[in-house]
Amino acid sequence: MGQDFNERLKVMREKYLENFPQDEAEQQAQLEAFKKMTTAEKLERIQSSLDILVEKKSLFKEKYHALKAEGKLDEAEETMSHIQMIADKIMHLEEKMAWIRSGETDPAKKERLKRQLAALELKRCKAQLDKKHCGKIDEKIAAKKEAFIKAYTKNTA
Fold it and tell me: Is 149 helix (H, G, I), strand (E, B) or coil?
């Protein structure tokens, strides 16, 4: 049994090493995919994607008009669905760009909201210990939580 396990382990290592990039450039390229990007880099990457999509959309429109002129309505309809998908992608990327530009992704802003929320929670605890009414504090906490959820749970893509 131990021999069989060692054999399988050896085969698995060989397969792993075959598929894993050996040269430094390929390893660096794979690590770049997980690197944290600055806001400017994100905007630049989104803008380049937008440029590519706009170019594709114009090419598909030309193809659509050519197919329609030739009378190939089925292919023209399929091309129109591609145009619509590209338009949707463009819209989503533009929304993402606007969201990034708005600064809602700023980690400092997120931490500030967390601190404010923690301070309100502490204030509520003190009021409860003093047996005071804390309805206003509860309202403020609910508003802060709602703002936090609204800002940091949507558009995470």
Answer: helix
